[in-house]
Amino acid sequence: MRGKLMRFPRPNGAEEVVRELNEFLDRFELRGSTHRGYICVFNNGDHPDFAWNMGGRFYSQGNASYQQMSRDERLRMTIDGEPVCEIDIRASYLTIFHAWNGAYLDHHRDPYDLPGLGPDARPVIKSLFHAMFGSDARLDRWPKEIAAKYLAETAVRASLARFWRFSAAVATSWKGHRKPRSG
After folding, report:
1. Nearest-angstrom CA–CA distance, 98 and 92
2. Which residues is 65 bridged to in the sheet?
């Protein structure tokens, strides 16, 4: 977690909600991961208008918690012997944003595939939306983690594209040629 630890009077009822949630979850056996209960971390505690009203997040305690695992690893977990599943809400940030603003989001098309930019721009557009919605401030530059991930992904994609173009060129140039017989 980032940020500085700040001391506050305890919020009304929030601690009880977390305790009740942890007690409820303790009744189940989790296999394939570790969950030692949730803690709740609140945002913007140093903001002058802070009143436990600026968002926060539940974090599962422990280094091997499911929140630290890849999607494939999480899908191998069980709760009381039953397999888990993940529900992916398509374009969740955009869906919520549109709903808050009374606008319609067409769920029959990919909201990250913007006209005129083509499908190759999709990962960039999606990362940009996530960075903007995940920040309290106006973005003046790409966040370092997103830029590094994008560069790594596009470098791999570009390398594969170059490889396939080379392979196709080699295959085309060798088409019709036979390997000389030895002997």
Report:
1. 10
2. 34
